[in-house]
Design brief:
- It is globular and about 35 Å long.
- It has one domain: Alpha Horseshoe (Leucine-rich Repeat Variant).
- The protein is 70% helix and 0% strand.
- It is an all-alpha fold.
- The protein has 6 helices and no strands.
Amino acid sequence: MKDTEEFIKDLKHKDSSVRQHAAEMLGSVGDEKAVDSLILALKDRNKFVRQEVVSALGKIGGQRLLEPLTQALEEEKDDYVKSFINRVLDKLQK
């Protein structure tokens, strides 16, 4: 089993499926150490990776995510990813 550091490294892998899996696993682990790297991954060129990153951040939670997720919402072009960001923001604001 990979550790958090390896999954963080995988967020920069050239293969989008590896990046997507890394985000999913970081969300499952819920390690705060991954938050900064996940925030950077909100700008991934692949919408499925971005969706998984948003999901992972939602699982980790915390008020510090409100600003980067709000920024990502403003910059996001994909409607499905936008709806995902909105759901996570709603959850974080409760």
